[in-house]
Amino acid sequence: MFKSVLYKGRRTAALILALALCFAGCGKDVTLAQQSAAPQSGAGAVKTSSATAPAEGTEAGFVSLTDAVPDAVLEIRYYSTFNFVGERVDGYEQPCALLTREAAEALRGVSDSLAEKGYRLKIYDAYRPQTAVDHFERWAGDPNDTKMKEYFYPELEKTVLIPQGYIAEKSGHSRGSTVDLTLLDMKTGRDLDMGGGFDYFGLLSHPDFTDGLTEEQLANRQLLRDAMIEGGFVPLDTEWWHFTLDNEPYPDTYFDFPVSFDSVA
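Now predict its structure.
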């Protein structure tokens, strides 16, 4: 009888040990599964920053500008063929504008302020995917494609556009907090005269350029500049239409999801 009890005790101990090993193994498997399921870097970010970048094309980081700033008028040039390339630019799948949530909220403040004075914002471009920037570089490398020269760079040879910095391999637009825009007069329904067009390659586009510009044109540029600076944006010294949110959320991240409503759906 003593042997029988001892045998049963050994069997019980063995069973307890087996169950303990099983639970330990299962716990390890769950931990590994959780680790393997952790989100990885998305293909939409070319370069990551210390800030946590949103997953590719999620509403967590980007919004449709027209949702955030309903008074804005869109004229998305790179979706059309009226731009310096002369065709729809890669990455622009729909005629919409996307921005980081922070930039869009700041721009809403600018829009509200200018609306009280009788103006609306007209948007030419906002977030720009790296795919589009790559398209610009390919275009700039083709010396034979000059069909839009008379409209956008009549004073320059195409071969100098990259060396002089008009076309670059990276764009602040790809970080999602930069916007190109002008002002529309709500009384006349026309754009304010800025003395030079969007994306004109030359000194005429510099905000501080004065040669040949009228007082009205200079005042219009200053009106846009002052409103954007007051709203928290930083101007660019070579383009009167270009502004970047001062405290942009992804200063070192260049995204590459398409310009489409689906990207923020």
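DSSP finds six helices and eight strands in the chain.
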